[in-house]
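ok new one. same drill as before - structure tokens go in, u give me an amino acid for every spot. 259 of them this time. try not to just spam alanines like last time pls lmao
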């Protein structure tokens, strides 16, 4: 992808916005929250809405011609060449219960291509981010996937075992998990980030929204791994996701093919 100067500028701004929104969420983290159910059954809190509102305000002030797609407030400027994609609190259920694995997620597309990804974990004080062609950083040091090439030495992850077992990929998940050294449910964005930082080898997500996938694709790719949907397409709009260190990607895709 070209536009290296633009990508650097967007990357820097996305990190600033994510950290500022993260600071806002920490004011609510660990407190008693009023929770509403959205039409899809997922929960939303005041913190989700305020964090997305803050990021939108910052984008509008610095990049008024850019488009925005956010989980809470939808789409603005649909035809813009640059689009920001926001999930103000990924892992709202974790956030509600005081579990520190939630994230502020910001992705940026340039001319329809994922160009920047930021995953900021306010309660963990971790930020993992990437710009296309510019590598991946973990708290300002280089991030890289692991070199493990054997499933029996790997850590494999999913968000919800019961959810994946109900799906066509359930038998494949059982196969992968039973062959792996360790399987866990450190899910949502955190599982994908564990792959990007070399702490896990495989993360399987049978359900993933565009605003969840948008930052993860550039992060995992720039860390040397692979990110696709469960059909093997490198897209943020496939509705599912597989992040791996690359070494185990084809093995995982084959196993997860519906039986």
């Amino acid at each position: 992808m070209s536009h290296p100067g633009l990508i650097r500028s967007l990357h820097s701004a996305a990190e600033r916005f994510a950290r500022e929104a993260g600071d806002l969420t920490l004011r609510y983290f660990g407190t008693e929250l009023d929770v509403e159910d959205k039409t899809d059954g997922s929960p939303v809190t005041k913190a989700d809405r305020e964090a997305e509102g803050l990021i939108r305000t910052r984008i509008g002030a610095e990049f008024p011609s850019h488009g925005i797609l956010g989980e809470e407030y939808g789409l603005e400027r649909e035809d813009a060449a640059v689009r920001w994609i926001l999930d103000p609190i990924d892992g709202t259920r974790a956030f509600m219960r005081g579990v520190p694995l939630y994230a502020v997620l910001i992705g940026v597309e340039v001319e329809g291509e994922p160009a920047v990804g930021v995953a900021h974990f306010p309660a963990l004080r971790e930020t993992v981010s990437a710009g296309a062609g510019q590598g991946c950083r973990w708290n300002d040091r280089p991030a890289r996937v692991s070199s493990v090439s054997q499933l029996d030495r790997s850590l494999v992850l999913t968000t919800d075992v019961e959810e994946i077992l109900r799906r066509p990929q359930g038998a494949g998940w059982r196969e992968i998990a039973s062959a792996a050294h360790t399987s866990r449910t450190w899910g949502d964005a955190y599982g994908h980030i564990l792959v990007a930082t070399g702490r896990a080898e495989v993360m399987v997500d049978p359900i993933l929204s565009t605003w969840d996938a948008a930052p993860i694709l550039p992060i995992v790719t720039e860390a040397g791994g692979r990110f696709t949907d469960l059909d093997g397409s490198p897209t943020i709009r496939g509705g599912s996701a597989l992040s791996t260190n690359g070494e185990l990607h084809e093995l995982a895709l084959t196993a997860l093919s519906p039986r």
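The chain has a mean pLDDT of 95. and btw The chain has eight helices and 15 strands.
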